[in-house]
Amino acid sequence: MGIGTFNLCLSAIPARYLRILEFVGFSGDRQLALEKLKLGLKQVNSLRGPLCAIILIIYNLVAKYTLGNHRGYEDISLAEQLIKPIASVSPNGIGIQYFMGST
What is d(CA 96, CA 88) in angstroms, rounded to the nearest whole number? Predict the structure, then answer.
């Protein structure tokens, strides 16, 4: 989860600055980050699974829109798929209500 989140954050850095970080030893590989986070999703009986889902939801709904590479309804449907298992466990959680759009 940590490696995935860190690489996902680094992948948002412009290529000009990312070269400096790659020289130091950081990769910023977006595909590796998404694979690690999807691997963490499989751990449903721990805190890691829901946290990976929330990170992927934030990435799909907020970060991709802000960075300008969103795909509209495809990202929204993926976020809905990720939030359903979490919502079944704690439907009144503040994060769940925020991402579901309810008050």
Answer: 10
